[in-house]
Structure formats: C-alpha cells, structure tokens
Specification:
DAHP1/KDSA; TIM Barrel; binds manganese (II) ion; eight-stranded parallel β-barrel; 2 domains; coiled coil; binds phosphoenolpyruvate; alpha/beta; transferase; Chorismate_II_sf; about 350 residues; chorismate mutase
Length: about 350
C-alpha cells in the first residue's frame, strides 16, 4: 500500500470528506483545496459513478472525473476514495490511482455485484470500505466483508450509513445504532466509520449524529462537503461547505476511550460491578416472569383459551408507559423491551400448550 494511504488508514479519528459527486474539475479542485486548508481532513471522497434510486437524475460524471481526482491529490497530498459497483469501475479507479475504494449501500445488498467487485479486486493492494446494505440485514453486510476478504484484500473497513425504513422519520436512513454496534462486536478487528450525511439527509441534524458516533467510539467519519452545497448535482440538502465542516469538527466533544488515572479506573470498576449486579437481577426476574407465563400457559391449555389476548397486552403496555415515564424511560424503549419480553413469554406458553 502507498505510504500516504497507509498513514491515512491508521489515523484516528479518520476523517473522510468531499462531494457526494464529482461534477466539474473546478469543483473537485476547489473542494479538495478548501478541505486540505482546514487541516482536519485525511481523505478526499468523491462519487464518480452514482447509483441513483430512480433514472433521470445525475448518474455521475464517469471515468472522465478520475484524472480530476489525481489532480486534486497532487495539489493537496490527500489520498482519494471512490465508490465502485462493477468490475470495470474497479479497473478504472485502480488505473487512475484511486487510493481507497468503497462499496455503496445499493451494491452491498446484491451478492452478485459484491462478488463481481471482489473478483475484480483480487491481487490489488487497496483498502476497501464496505457500507451497510440499505436494508437492516447484518448477514448481507457480513457476506460482503467475507467476499472481499476472500479476494485477499487485507485492509477492510465498515461504513455505517443507516438503513432505509418505511414511513416518515427525522432521518433519511434510520441509524439503527444497535445493528452497527452488533456488527462492530462481531468484527472487532475492522474499523467502523460513521456516515452522518446519508443517515441524516439534511444538514441541520448532522451534529447530533456525529456526536453520537464519537461517543460510541467510532473510528472515523465520512461527511459530504461541497463548495456550493445548495447547488450540488446530488444530495444537495445534506452537504456542507468545507468551512462549515471544520467548524462542526471543532465543536464536537472528542472523548477518550481510556485515561491514565487509578482513581478513575477504580470508580469506573465499581460502577461496572453495579451494572453487572443489576443485569444479573434483571435476568433472574425475567426467568421468574417466564415461569409465571408458563403457569398461565398450563391454565390456558386446560381451559382451551388462545395465547394472545390483545386487550390484556394493551393493558400491560399502558401500565408500563405510565410507570416508565416516571422513571425516565422512553416510550420507544418500553415498546421494544415489552415486545421482546412478550415474544419470549409467547414462546414459553407455546411450548406448554403444544406439549
Ligand atoms: C454516497 O456515498 O454518495 C452514496 C451513494 O452513499 P450510499 O451508498 O450510502 O447511499
Ligand atoms: Mn451522497
């Protein structure tokens, strides 16, 4: 791997920025120069081939834009990163010296496409970042990592860009943090970068998501930037100027994963033990709850009643919302928690009723 790429790849937090799409040579060079001037950006990104959800919008400048990136690299010293989705795109990107490749969310969903990209990567000494698939499916994301790894690519990283979900939420792609955390847990050796731009889809809430990612100890951020965001040819609403980007990076509270202080460690250890005790208690109580559910199952079986009784379930939830509110627990958490407990109870009762 080239020296500058190696250095950038090892940098923490790794900050990748640049336009959603390369549009013109002037735009690419000006953005690159302004980003480099901030002194806060490690890698320049730009979309050359854009997988658009519907035809008719700007589908990327194509291979013609690759020399612009070479030029930008020469001008600023920043390594460049590009999204690839086909074998030809991998070939072209490598031919024009692109330093880091990434697989986009619309490609990660398709094993044929991922395999095609992985086959084209065989023998290349280039780092590859893999975005989560657009749908919340960890297996697909893992599958893409495995396909790329089988092509003997040694530097692999993950990009968490959120998951499309049905209905209105404040996000363009719901972050579903728990999925990214689980992916990180299963692949502790891979770097995980957060992409707040595609999660938010809008500028005004970028900071919240960036801060959350930093608090969750992500290895870096990929944020879209443009010299004239409102007039960008793609993703205009979510891009920020390089100047604004620098300001946001300055405002973030950067946390340390660890500090050298014995009293800090002792205090933390005590609190962690408390958490362990509380978790043990919760598990004990949940086990008891399931035993009671089984008794109810036996009763229902003997009297031939259905397991699911909607009225009773609504009553349980309403009680929990009221209590939870007083304890500072969100309605969303209560709903998810009780859904999980309820499903487990139903499974226990099911076993009894069908035994
Ligand atoms: C992008 O990075 O511009 C892009 C197309 O992102 P995603 O694959 O996350 O939609
Ligand atoms: Mn984009």
């Amino acid at each position: 791997m080239k020296q500058i790429t190696q250095q950038a790849w090892a940098k923490r937090p790794l900050i990748i920025s640049g336009p959603c799409s390369a549009e013109t040579e002037e735009q690419v060079l000006a953005t690159a120069q302004q980003l480099a001037n901030t002194g806060k950006v490690d890698v320049l990104r730009a979309g050359i081939w854009k997988p658009r959800t519907r035809p008719g919008s700007f589908e990327g400048i194509g291979t013609k834009g690759l020399p612009w990136l070479q030029q930008a690299k020469k001008l600023t010293g920043l390594p460049v990163a590009v999204e690839v989705a086909t074998a030809k795109q991998v070939e072209d990107a490598l031919h024009f010296d692109v330093d880091i490749l990434w697989i986009g969310a619309r490609t990660t969903v398709n094993p044929f496409s991922v395999q095609e990209v992985a086959d084209a990567l065989r023998g290349a000494d280039v780092p590859v970042l893999i975005k989560n698939p657009i749908n919340p499916d960890l297996e697909l994301w893992l599958g893409a990592v495995e396909r790329v790894a089988k092509s003997n690519i040694k530097q692999i990283g993950l990009i968490h860009r959120g998951f499309s979900s049905y209905g209105n939420t404040e996000y363009r792609n719901a972050p579903m943090w728990h999925l990214a955390i689980e992916m990180k847990r299963r692949n502790p050796e891979l770097m995980v970068i957060n992409d707040p731009s595609h999660i938010c889809g809008r500028r005004d809430i970028l900071m919240d998501v960036m801060q959350k990612a930093i608090d969750l100890d992500y290895d870096g951020l990929m944020i879209e930037s443009h010299i004239d965001p409102d007039n960008a040819w793609s993703d205009a609403k979510q891009q920020v100027t390089p100047e604004k980007l620098a300001e946001m990076l300055n405002t973030l509270a950067w946390r340390k994963e660890d500090v050298d202080s014995e009293s800090y460690h002792a205090a933390l250890e005590k609190l962690r033990q408390q958490i362990n005790h509380l978790d043990d208690e919760l598990l004990q109580i949940l086990g008891q709850r399931m035993k009671v559910a089984e008794q109810i199952g036996t009763y229902k079986k003997n009297n031939n009643i259905t397991i699911l009784q909607t009225n009773r379930w609504n009553e349980i939830l309403d009680r929990a919302f009221l209590k939870g509110d007083k304890l500072g627990l969100s309605k969303e958490f209560i709903t998810r928690y009780f859904d999980a407990v309820h499903m487990e109870s139903i499974n226990h009762q099911n076993k009894i009723m069908n035994s």
